[in-house]
């Protein structure tokens, strides 16, 4: 079992490294394309190079405005804006390659599904949320939000607050001493 976990962790590290290297390589490649395009435009279009590059910059500005008007994370949009305005050719190439959409990292990290609750427990949780909502609307909204994410609301439970670790350990020792058959940890 441990070897499988080590293999998975090693595989995930390798995937992250490959992803990082490919991202850096793509950025370096686009900057090189930016340099090559600039040199080619200067070389081939001696008289009209500034006009052609101005058109590319204008297209980059239009794309930057469209990115600015999109909904989404401001920090994500800011990075695209900077890239499109500072290096318009590279920015446009990257924008066309990646579509300008935020892509979450999709490594082989599989989410563990929550335990399957019996339908009766789920219905009881819905009743508990309804009762809580009648008592306190704000707390009811929080409980409903958590329930949608498979955190059910139970009743007839208790919790004890310990101000410091000594109180907790004293209580823990008292409960351990009350054990009759076994202690499950």
Fill in the keyword field for this structure.
mainly alpha; 2 domains; 185 residues; 7 helices; elongated
* Contiguous helical run count: 7
Q: What is the N-to-C succession of helices and strands?
A: HHHHHHH
Structural class: mainly alpha
Count every beta strand, where a strand is a DSSP E run of 2 or more residues. Answer: 0
The biggest beta sheet is recorded as: none
Helix content: over 70%
Quaternary assembly: single chain
Proportion of strand residues: under 5%
Ends: how far apart?
A: 21 Å
Low-confidence stretches: none
Mean pLDDT: 81
Q: Over the alpha carbons, how many angstroms does the gyration radius reach?
A: 29 Å
Number of domains: 2
Net shape: elongated
Care to describe what's here?
- By secondary structure, the protein is an all-alpha fold.
- The protein folds into two domains: 2-98; 119-177, no CATH class.
- Helix content is 70%, strand content 0%.
- The protein has seven helices and no strands.
- The two termini are 21 Å apart.
Summarize the structure.
The protein has helices at residues 2-44, 49-69, 74-86, 88-98, 119-135, 137-148, 165-177. It is an all-alpha fold.
Chain-wise SSE layout:
Layout: H1 2-44, H2 49-69, H3 74-86, H4 88-98, H5 119-135, H6 137-148, H7 165-177
């Amino acid at each position: 079992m441990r070897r499988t976990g080590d293999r998975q962790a090693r595989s995930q590290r390798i995937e992250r490294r490959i992803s990082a290297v490919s991202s850096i390589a793509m950025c370096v490649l686009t900057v090189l394309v930016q340099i090559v395009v600039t040199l080619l435009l200067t070389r081939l279009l001696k008289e009209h190079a500034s006009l052609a590059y101005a058109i590319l910059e204008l297209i980059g500005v239009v794309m930057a405005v469209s990115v600015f008007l999109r909904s989404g994370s401001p920090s994500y949009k800011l990075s695209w804006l900077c890239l499109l305005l500072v290096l318009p050719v590279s920015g446009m190439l990257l924008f066309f390659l990646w579509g300008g959409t935020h892509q979450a990292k999709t490594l082989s990290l599989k989410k563990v599904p929550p335990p399957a609750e019996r339908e009766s427990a789920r219905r009881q949780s819905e009743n508990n949320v309804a009762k809580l909502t009648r008592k306190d609307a704000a707390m009811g909204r929080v409980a409903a939000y958590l329930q949608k994410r498979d955190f059910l609301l139970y009743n007839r439970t208790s919790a004890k607050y310990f101000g410091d670790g000594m109180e907790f350990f004293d209580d823990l020792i008292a409960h351990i001493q009350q054990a009759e058959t076994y202690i499950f940890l």
